[in-house]
Input
Amino acid sequence: MEKEELKITEAQEPVFNEARYKKHFVLSFSLFFFFAATYFIAAIVTTRELKTIAAINILGLPLALYLGMIVLIVGVAVTRLYLMKISKGGG
Output
């Protein structure tokens, strides 16, 4: 296996790309708000005042359990989507 040698011709200064920054900013905060909305809906439904709604049985399990699982799944999906988009953009 041949090893490639890295050749440094000139020192490059970092370049700030404003369009790319805005794109990543919008992506980051839209994913954050989507996760936050999911989390807070689940948290509000599981409060003492809404315990009757949280106790609704769906297939033998309470709604609160399903909401907790949805928050977990959304968290993993948002993280995976963010990492895929950032790595694709050279982020």
Remarks:
- The longest helix spans residues 18-45.
